[in-house]
Amino acid sequence: MSPFLKTLFVIARRDFLSIVATPTFLLFLLAPLFMIGVGAIGGAGASQLADSARGAGRIVALVDAGDIEALRAADLRLRDALPRREKPVTLEIRLATRSADPLAITREKGSDTYAVLSGPLAAPRIVEQEKGSSSGRYLVLLAGEVLRDRAAGPLPPVEPRFESIANQGASIAVQQSMGFGAVFAIFLLTLLLAGQAVGMLAEEKGNKVIEILAAAVPLESVFLGKLLGLLGVAILFIAFWTAIAIGGGLVAATQIDPGAIAAAGAAGKSAAALVSAPATGWPFFIGIGFAYFVMAFLLLGAVFLGVGAQAGTVREIQMLSLPITIFQVAMFSLSAAASSAPGSTLATVAQIFPLLLAARDGRARRDRRQSRDPPARARLAGDLGRTCRLSLGTPVPRRRAQRRQQLEILEAPRTPRRLTATAHPHVIDKAVNSGILQLIWPTAASVAASLI
Amino acid sequence: MTALTVEAQDLTKYFGNFKAVDHVSLEVPTGSIYGVLGPNGAGKTTSLRMTLGIIDPDEGSSRLFGGQRPQSVRHRIGYLPEERGLYPGMKAREAIAFMGALRGLDWSEGRRRAEIFMTELGLERVIDEKIRKMSKGMAQMIQLIGSIVHAPDLIVLDEPFSGLDPVNQERLEMLVRRERDRGATVLFSTHVMAHAERLCDRLAIIARSQRRFEGTVDEARAMLPMQVRYTPRGLADPAAIAAMLPSGAEPRGDAWQFPIADAEVEPLLARITASGHGVAGLSIVRPGLHDAFVHIVRQVDAGFEADARADAIEEAAL
To answer: Which residue of chain B has the CA closest to A418?
Structure first.
C-alpha cells in the first residue's frame, strides 16, 4: 500500500472511530426510529379516525317485504367485486311502512346517513346528502339489479376458474416504482448522510490538530480520509437498517405461510414488489444501487466538506446550515422532477449538473428497464466506470496544486504590522479553506465536462 | 566537517508587506541539539515551518538529510507545533499511536511504544485516560511523545518547555538528550535561556526577523566581557580601592562590580594581592546566555529604534 493510501486510511480510521464510538452516534443510528414512530402514530390515528367515520356511515333502503331478500343478495354480490377501500358504507334495509319518512331517517342520531331509497324499485325516490353522490348511485344500481334478476328469472350460477399470471414477470408499473423508489432512497440517504460532512474540518481547526496533520501528511489525504471515514459511517448506518429490515422480513416470513404471500402478491402493490424482480435482477440492481450511492456520496460529501471547511467556528457552521439545507431540498426537488420527466430540458440539466448524480442514475435505470439488450448494459457499465473514476480518481491529479497550497498554508493576512504568533492558526485555516476549494471545484467541473 | 541534517538557506517570508523572516539560514549538524532562540514574534515558528516545508519560503530553500525536499522525508521527522492540539476524545495511548501512524508507524507498535514512553515519564496512570481529562501539561507531554514515537531522525520542537512544570521540564530535557544519544538530531525553539544553555550544542538567535548570532553557547557568552565581583577584607578608603580597580567599577554595598577584558584578569589579581586590602570575596564569571541574549536583542532593538526615529524625522520633513 502506498504511503498516501496508508495515511488516508489512518485519517479515515480515526474519523470513523471518533464518530462511531460516541453515545451520540446511537442517537444518529436510531434517528429513523423517530421518523417511523411519528409516522406510525400519525398513520394509526388517521386510520382509526377514518375507520370510525366509516363505521358511523350508512345508506338506507325502504323497500317492500318481497324485495328485501333480493336486495340483500344483490348487495352482497356487488360489494364482493369492489376493492376493500372502495366498498360502499353499510346498507340498512328497512321495511317500508306508511309512517316511514326518508327525511326523518336522515335526521336520526347515531350515524351519518348518506342516502335513502324509498318508493317502488322501478321509480325509486333517492334522498341524498350530496347531489350525485356514489351512495345514491349505488342504491340505484342495487334497485336495477333486483329488477333485472326478477325479469330474467333464475340464471345458472357462474363458475369461474382463477389462474395466476405471476410467472409472466413483474408488471411495468411495479418496476417503475421500484426504480423511482431506489433513486429516491439513494438520493435521500446521500443528502442526509453527506450533510454530516459539513462540520468535519471545524474539529481540527478548533483543537489545532490541523498543523500536526499538515506537517505529517499531504492535505489530500486528510481531505479524502475524512470523506472515507464518513462514508464508512454512512455504510454502517445503511447496513444496520438493512440488517434490521432483512431480519424483520425473515421473522415475518416464518409467521406467514408462502401461500399467503402469493395471495397478497395479487392484492397489493407493495407485496407484489416482494415477489417480482427488477429488470436486471436483484444482485445487479442492488450492486449498482450501492455503487451509485457511494459515488454520489463522495461527490456530495466533498462539496459539503469543502463548504463546511470555510467555517471556523460552530456558530459559522450553524449559519451555514440554512443555505445547505435549502441547497439539499432544491437538489432533491430538481432530481425528483428530472427523474419523473425523462427527456425534458430539466432532465438534461440534471444530467449535466454533476451533483444531481441520482437523476442520472434514474435515467440509466430507465434505460435498463426499457431495453434489456446487451448494448444498453454495456453503455451502462461504461457510465459506471467513468463515474467511478471521476468520483475517486480526480483528486489525485490535483496533487501538484495541492502541494503548492499546502506549502502556502501560512499565507499572510493582509494586515502587516499587527502580525503576532496568534495570527498563525487563523492563517492556517484560510489556507486550508482555499486548498479544499481548489480540490473540489475541479472535481465537480471535470465530472460535468465528462458528462457533456 | 560533520554532515548536516538541516540545510536551510536564506529563508525569507513576507506576510503582506511585513517581512516576517529575512534571509535566515540554519545549518544543523547531524546528531546535535540545536536551539533557535529569539523574543516573541521574532520569526522562530515561521522559520521552523519553512524548514519543515509546512509553508513555502518566498525566497531561499530548505533541504533535509543531505539534499532531500522536506515533503519527501516526512516519516523521518517528528514535529511538535507551537499550537498544541490533540483530539480531546482520544485516549492517550491511541493519540500517540495515531500520531505515529501518520508518520508511517504501525498502530500496534505505536501503542506498545506509547506505554513504554508514558511509563518512563511517570504518566502510566493516564495511559487509557482521554485527553480531555488531562491537565494541559500532561496533554503536552502526550503530544511530545506522539511526535517522537516513530523514532525520527530529525526532531523539531517549537517552544517545547512552555507550559510545563519544573519536574516535567527536567524530564523533557532528559528525553531530548536521550534522543540525541540515540542518534537523532534535535532542533528546538525557545525563549527560555536556561534550557538552551544546558542543552544546546549550537544555537541561532533570531531577532527582528533576522539571524543575529550563530554558534556555540560559549561563543555567545564570549560576546560579553567577564564580570568581576570583589569584596575587600576590612574597612578601607573607597577612593583608594576605586583607584586600584578599573574605571568602570561601582560599589554595591561592601562589594565592587565591574566588567573585565580577558587579558586583564591576571594583572588585576596581582594588583589586589599587592594592595593589601585583602579578599573577603572574589568572583570572576562569564555572563550567562541570558545576558548575552538580552545584549544581542537590545542591540538590534536599539538599531531599529534609531532607524525609526530617523524615519520619523524624514517623514516630518516631507
So the answer is: B18
Residue A187 within a domain: yes
Kindly state whether residues B180 and B231 are assigned to the same domain.
no
Co-location of B33 and B180 in the same domain: yes
* CA dihedral over A246, A251, A252, A254, signed as positive or negative: positive
A215 → closest Cβ in B45, B79, B104: B79
Determine the Cα–Cα distance for residues B315 and A120; give it in Å rounded to an integer: 117
| Residue A70, H or E segment | helix A65-81
Distance of alpha carbon A88 from alpha carbon A133, whole angstroms:
11
Q: pLDDT tens for residues B269-281? A: 888 888 888 888 8
Q: Which residues of B touch A (CB under 8 A)?
A: 13-18, 20, 40-41, 45-46, 49, 52-56, 71, 74-75, 77, 79, 81-90, 98-99, 101-104, 143
Q: Which of B17, B54, B104 sits opposite A215 (nearest CB)?
A: B54
Beta carbons of A378 and A388 less than 8 angstroms apart = no
CB contact under 8 A, A421 and B82: yes
CATH number, domain with residue B255: 3.30.70
Closest CA to B296 of B202, B219, B200: B219
Same domain, B41 and B88: yes
Q: Which residues in chain A touch residue B98, judged by CB atoms under 8 angstroms apart?
A: 10, 14
Question: Which position has the higher pLDDT, A247 or B317?
Answer: A247
| Residue A261: per-residue pLDDT | 56
Of A214, A407, A421, the CB nearest to B41: A421
Adjacent-strand bridge partners of B223: none
- Interval A400-439: pLDDT, tens: 434 443 333 333 333 333 333 333 444 444 445 544 454 4
Provide the domain limits for residue A277. Answer: 3-30+172-451
Q: 3-class SS at A127?
A: strand
Burial B20-46, CB ≥16 within 10 A → b, else e: bbbebebebbbbbbbbbbbbebbbbbb
Question: Distance (Å, rounded) from C-alpha B158 to C-alpha B80?
Answer: 6
A255-268 confidence digits (pLDDT tens):
766 666 555 555 54
Residue A136 has pLDDT above 80, yes or no: yes
ipTM of model? 0.80
